Amino acid sequence: MLWEQERRVGSEAWRKGDLENEAYLYTAALAELKTSSQVKSRNDSTLLRSMTASLQRETDAIEQRLKEDVHRLRSDIQLDMNNRKEEVNADLKGLDRAIMDLNSKFTILLGEARTEIETVRWVSTRRVMSLSLPSSL
């Protein structure tokens, strides 16, 4: 019986040593897992910061290009509008010139018609006068 108790106490002691060993291994594995988790977290954080900075640079570059394109388009539109205004003004001047030419032609034709009418009136007046003068003598 003593022998049995000694064996049981020895096996319990063995079990206690095994449990302490297992607890140590568990704690060591847990610490290693914690360390690797922290390293991975730091690496991921660094990677995310790097990617964020890269994306911000790309966004800034695209924004700058967009501003330049908008400015160029505004300039092009303003240039096109100015050209169109000049074309319209040139067309209006041409129209004014054509109207003035027509006005001049009509004035000339009207003057010629008045002259013709006046000529016919003088001729008629002379004929009437020439017809009435010999009969009154």
Brief rundown of the structure:
The protein has one helix at residues 2-136.
Structure description:
The protein has 137 residues and is mainly α. 99% of the residues lie in helices and 0% in strands. The protein is built from one helix and no strands. The chain has one helix at residues 2-136. The mean pLDDT is 89.
Question: Main attributes?
Answer:
single chain, 137 residues, mainly alpha, 1 helix
What would you call the structural class? Answer: mainly alpha
Uncertain stretches of 5 or more adjacent residues = none
What Rg is obtained from the alpha carbons, in whole angstroms? Answer: 58 Å
Average pLDDT, to the nearest integer?
89
What's the β-strand tally?
0
Order of helices and strands: H
Share of residues in strands? under 5%
The first-to-last residue Cα distance is 195 Å
Report the sheet with the most strands, covering strand number, pairing sense and barrel closure.
none
- Helical fraction equals over 70%
| Overall geometry | rod-shaped
Q: Please report the number of helical segments.
A: 1
